[in-house]
Amino acid sequence: MTLPVDNKTATVWRWLTEALARHFPAKEAYALGRELFEHCCGIATDQRVLYPEAPLSESCIQQLHWGINRLVKGEPVQYITGKTTFLDFEFKVSPQVLIPRPETEELVIWLLEHIRKKLSREKRKMTILDVGTGSGCIAVSLAAKLPGAEVLACDYKKIILEVAKHNALINNVEVSFILMDVLSDFRPIPLLDFLVSNPPYVMKKEKKKMQANVLDYEPEHALFVEDTDPLVFYRAICEKGMKWLKPGGWIYFEINESLGSKAFDLIERNGFIKVELKQDINGKDRFIRARKPVRPV
Known about the structure:
This protein is of the alpha/beta class. 42% of the residues lie in helices and 19% in strands.
């Protein structure tokens, strides 16, 4: 791919978007170009438009060239820029953590609505645990939206928790992070009002339906479960959640759209009541919540 004919901002921008338009739909090419341009050149959209004649450095143009090549190979732009947004907050992401999805924003919004209603009645500090926190998008967003809440988050590798800790720091919130593999560890923690999790739930047989940019770049440990036991994380979290949650506490999950009824039955078998299945904005079974009984059944 040839480099732009000169280093003026407008020329480089046109070269970038035309290069991307050969591989992506027009709207996607524009959006990708905007993110890449701001990341590589440090120039926001308004400045790019206001100063089209401003010269760009050779380093900036070379970084754009590398970025185009990475995008064309299928690498997510979030891993190139090292960041993404979730509920209007900025998050660092790396290949060690899953890129947050819009569906997970829906989960957090559903949970926030419930917590705020409970706070309006009870007016006390709520304690919340995010299991399998990854980038920390759920825990950090909850801590930011619920000042005064005690928010905890766990994951099974230090390198993952380092990303989540960084995101708590840049968003100026306090989250208590715990190194724990929910499949094999059990840690005593403060009794919880709410437990939330977006665990791995994609069956390996579903790989053939997935895009290469997910399969080739996003962490397999955060996505896939064995076809023979796709609810393994839900079972472990329910078993531990029954001990961690206060009587009357709630558990919230994001789920595989094809496993709604099975997840519903599993949660009921583990002693939870008021189990509710909720669809996402696309009409797919995507979320489930349930309550720990106030008194033993």
